[in-house]
Structure formats: C-alpha cells, structure tokens
Amino acid sequence: MSWVLENLDTIGELTLVHLALSLPAVVIAFLVSIPLAWVANRIRVLREPLLTGTGLLYAVPSLPLFILLPAVVGTSVRDPLNVVIALSIFGLALMVRSAAEALDAVTDDVRTSATAIGFSGVGRFFTVELPLAGPALLAGVRVVCVSSISLVSVSAVLGVNSLGSLFTDGFARDIIGSILAGIVMTVVLALICDLLLVLAGRLLMPWNKNAAAVRPRLRKRRTQEAAA
Amino acid sequence: MNNIVEAVRWLLTADAWSGAGGLWERSMEHLGYTLIALGISAALALPLGLLIGHTGKGRGVSVVATGAARALPTLGLLTLVALFTGIGLTAPMVALVILAAPSVLAGAYAGVESVNPATVDAARAQGMSGWQVLTRVEIPLGLPLILSGLRLAALQIIATATLAAYVGAGGLGRPLFLGLRTYDYPLMLGTSIVVILLAILVDAVFGTGQRLIRRIPGLAGPQRAPRGERRGRRRAVAAGG
C-alpha cells in the first residue's frame, strides 16, 4: 500500500485524464442519440435500420476500434481523440435504442393534448416530449456513463494515458498496489458519476420523485387485470 | 486510408492465414477462448439466474451486483490475476468469466420474470411442481431473453479476448499486439478487421438462433406480457448487462 501513498499525485492526475476521456464521450453520445432517436420514431421506415445499425456498432470490439479509427479519421494510434471518438460510438450504440424507446413511450394522448393547447412541433418536443421521456433517458445515460468509464482503461495498452496506465505499469513492474489503485479508482469514479447523474435527474425532474412509488402499484393493477 | 488498403491487401494473401501463428489458427484460438469462457459463465450464472427468476429472491442483490460488475475494468482484473497466476490462460479466463457472467445472469432472471404470471399460475393450478414449472414453462417461454443474455456475454468475451495476449496467451490479440509493438500497421489493422468480423459473425449466429426459436410453435409466440412490461424487461436485460 505504500506505493499508493507515494504516488497519490500520479493517481489523481490519471483520474482527471480518465474523466477527460470518458465524460465528453458520454455527452456526445447523449446529444447525438436524441436527434437520431427522433428521426427513428418520426420516419418509421428508418426505425429498424437505424436502431439495428447503431446496435450493431456495439458488436465492434473496443481495442480493434481504437486501432481502426486512426486509419479512418487520420489521427495517430496514441491520440486521445481516438479514444473519445470510439467511446462516443459505443455510447451511441447503447443510447440510440433506449432514447428511441423513451421518446416513443410518450403516449399519443399527451402529444395530441399538447398540440391542442397550441404547441408547435418543435416547442412540443422540447417542453413536453423530452421532459416526459427524461427518466427513461436518464436510465440510458447512466448505463453509458458507467460502461464508458470502465472501457477507457483498455486504451492504456496502446499507450494512451488514463487510469488504465496503472494496470499496464503495474503489470510491467510487478506492483499490485498500482493495479488495485486503478481498479478501485475506476469503480469509485463510475459510482460517483452515476450518483451525480441520479442527483441531476432529481433536480431537473422533480416530478419523477414519486415514480418509484407509482410503478409497483401500476404493475399490481396490471397483474390483477391480467388475472381477471 | 492507405493503411486500410494495405491491411486488406495483406488479409487477402494466403500467407496471412496459413501456418502456425497464422490468422486462421489465431481465430480458432480466439473462438476457443470465447467458447470456454462462455461455457464457464453459463455454468455458473445460468442456474443462479434461473433460481433468482423462479423464486424472486436475491433479485435486488443481483441487480446491484451486475451494475457494479459493469464498472469493473477488465484490463485491471486481467493484469491483477496475471500477477498471481503468471502468464498463460488462467488470468484471461478469470477476467472473461467475471466480465460475462453478469450478462448471463441478468438475461436468465429477466427471461424467467418475463413469463406472464397468469401462465405460471395456470401451470401450478394444473398440478405442476416447482421444478416442472421452471423447466416446462418458465425456461422455454423465457428463452428469447435468456439467449440475449448469452449473446451479449459472447460479444463482450470476443471483444475482450484480444487482451488475453497482453498477459501472454494466444488468440487474435497476438498479431494485434505484435503489430502494435513493431509499428506494423497493416498487421495491426488487418487483425483488427478480423476481430470485428468475427464479433459480427457470432452476433449474427445468435441473432439467427433467436429468430429460429421464435418460429417454434408454442415458444414465445402466444406468450406476450403487456406492452409496457415487456419494454421494462428488455431494459432490465440491457441495464443488467
């Protein structure tokens, strides 16, 4: 453990670098998935190709993608930018389907009512549909955030610095403390970001506070209906 | 772009594929690792997942555990175990199983839970024992979701098995890391393309399997949970994996 105490600076620095690689990817995945999901729901012919297509991206293994991207984008293999782009692609693969389903779950009644009160298409989307889909969108973002933070470290084998460097260095120099510190910091980082997302969700969507209490009741009623 | 052209050209030569350490042998190794790791994960996680789904006990714990497992960096696990076991196949296998088991587990319990409660009650009313309900009703009807858990696990393993070579094992990671160390871009890129194709191929095999199962009469066909509920389950699998 003395290794950890002596290298707190390095660990702290790598944590920040790690965040700088993963958080932009989460934001990009979220921002790009919304319009894609909107298109998927609006133009029905495109729905399946779009959702399966982005889903298929998830089948692409991370390390090969880190290597393939530079050849396509024109960066070098050790460029942090590749990592951000690759992680955004993975985030997108996870996020587009859940965003499309979240937006699709807003019922037609709600949409029609909003139109009836005088909302235009765009206004209705941002003030009615997006907030209502919020909780489901949040669930998707949480998954993307945790898996991005965990995935970043793979890029360390290419020589891109992150908490993953603690694994490659620790392995090369036989320091268990380094590897353990990397694992603990990655998990803690993921948990903290997840918690912040939950808190942000509470602040932005105060109406969702009782959702957890409402849902079981709904399910019970549904089961009773099914039984009857 | 030039590098890609060169990589593809290299892939099209017979030399790249033949002999010891050729891409063909490495691909087979890679698939072998995947099968072993998937087999171990399934042997550990399937019974547990089915039990959780059947009894409804331990669900909360497993949801939290699968979520936490997602945050575990595989490279960290791999290098940590490798420091204890030395180079070879043990460390990659441990890491791959820890990586894949949560997806299998989540698929299994979500699959069993997706079965309409009314159907389960009906089976019980006909006098089926708990074991019979599980094997004749819940597993067959939950099969699509159980399979999607296995499919996700297989994909995760194929993707991560490239790292096995980092601690001295074989697989497609071997030529990949060799290319990385010697700045041989065509080798590195070509191998990457093979890994990607392999992943897509395995995914397609699982996809076809799932589609075929849906065609078997009585399996997952007439059984449909209410719309909202189904959607929730699918999300549960995704979130659990």
Structural class of chain A: mainly alpha
Unreliable runs of chain A, pLDDT <50, ≥5 residues?
none
Percent strand of chain B equals under 5%
The average pLDDT value of chain B, as a whole number, equals 83
Order of H and E elements of chain A: HHHHHHHHHH
Membrane topology (chain B): Multi-pass membrane protein
Biased composition (Basic residues) (chain B): 230-241
Pfam family, one (chain B): BPD_transp_1
Protein name (chain B): Osmoprotectant transport system permease protein
What's the gist of this structure?
With 228 residues, chain A is an all-alpha fold.
List its traits.
heterodimer; A: 228 residues; mainly alpha; 0% strand; B: 241 residues; 11 helices; elongated; disordered C terminus; transmembrane helix (chain B); transmembrane (chain B); membrane (chain B); ABC_transp_perm/SBD (chain B); transport (chain B)
Describe this structure in words.
Chain A: The chain crosses the membrane at residues 16-38, 50-69, 81-100, 139-163, 175-200. The complex is a heterodimer of chains A (228) and B (241). By secondary structure, chain A is mainly α. Helix content of chain A is 82%, strand content 0%. Chain B is mainly α and 241 residues long. The two termini of chain B are 35 Å apart. Residues 221-241 of chain B have low confidence and may be disordered. The chains are: A mainly alpha (228), B mainly alpha (241). At the A-B interface, α4, α5, α7, α8 and α9 of A face α1, α4, α5, α7 and α8 of B.
